[in-house]
Amino acid sequence: MSLELPASTVDPSKTIDVYADGGSGSDLVRIVGTSGNNTVTVTSGAVTLGVMTLTRTSIELDDFDGVGGTDQLTVTGGTWHQADDLQNGTNVCNVTASSSAVVVFNTTQHIGALSVTSSATATLAARGGSYDVTPARVITVSSLDLGSDINSHATGTLDIKDNDLIVKSGNLGTWNGTAYTGLQGILQRSLHDGAWDLPGIITSLADDDGPYTAIGIAKASDVFGISSSGTASWIQGAGLTVGVTGSDILLKYTYTGDCNLDGEINGDDYFQIDSHVNLSGSAFDYFNGDLNLDGLINGDDYFFIDSNSPGQHDPL
Ligand SMILES: [Ca+2]
Ligand SMILES: [Ca+2]
Ligand SMILES: [Ca+2]
Question: Residue ranges of the domains in the chain?
Answer without folding.
Answer: 2-265
